[in-house]
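Hi, here's the filled form for the chain we discussed.

Project: internal
Contact: R.S.
Residues: 301
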Amino acid sequence: MLVEALRVMFREGCEAPLRHHHEIAAGGAPSGTMLLMPAWIPGRYLGVKLANVFPGNGARALPAVQALYILCSGETGEVLATLDGNELTARRTVAASALAAACLARRDSETLLLVGAGRLAKLMAQAHAAVRPLRHIMVWGRDAAKAAALAGELRDAFAQVSVADDIASAMARADIVSCMTLSREPLVHGAWLQPGTHLDLVGGFRPDMRETDDEAVRRASVFIDTPGAIHEAGDIAAPLATGALALDDIRADLAALVRAAHPGRTDEKEITLFKSVGAAQEDLAAAILCYERALARREAA
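And the returned structure, exactly as it came back:
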């Protein structure tokens, strides 16, 4: 349902100003980022998300993202609901990746490699499985214990689940590679990409974060969620700066894909790359879906 809600939102559009970024010192830990993300549909709904992203939280056994979403009436401005921003962010993030995969991944994609074993990874597997016939899930994580634990959780839902010890060899078998880390150095190298692979990059949201290298964008047809990715994501901004990627090389964003302004994948051997940084319209679509379903359940009761 959320994939479809995002499809409708990107097709019909809404008002979504550029989000605010504020760097926050965190003592001896890596600095954090405060994000403010407003969006509204005139006369219907307006909402804003406050998200604090602190990469050092892993050492404290805390999620890297702490967030709150406030949904309001677009007619009166009154608060209609507050939502767990972490859950909303996680679910709309994976739904956006699934929406992109529905346009870009091969229809017969059966094997997914998860790069990263955080809380997003299980949802990512479920989301991709909603749009492609996944059977085999491979999990790679810098923390082997976390990767093994996630693999154990996924075995209830998928026929084959394994822990990948080496990213390069796992990529040789993957149809879809989904990266969900806060890495500042490339983990996935373009030389490892096989013909027909779809590469899904969701972790990095700042120019100093990278999950893949310049060679990946040289070899791939590049797509983004919104134009914000051009400036905010190191996986796009860095190769633009080095000349490995030109603005004209970026094929389309999600809005163009769902409006059929671009056909998406055009060849079974084409390597496709989708980079998302998240967008306020995705949060708004998810919040509206949650709120309206809650109202429907209340009325049904």
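Let me know if anything looks off before we file it.
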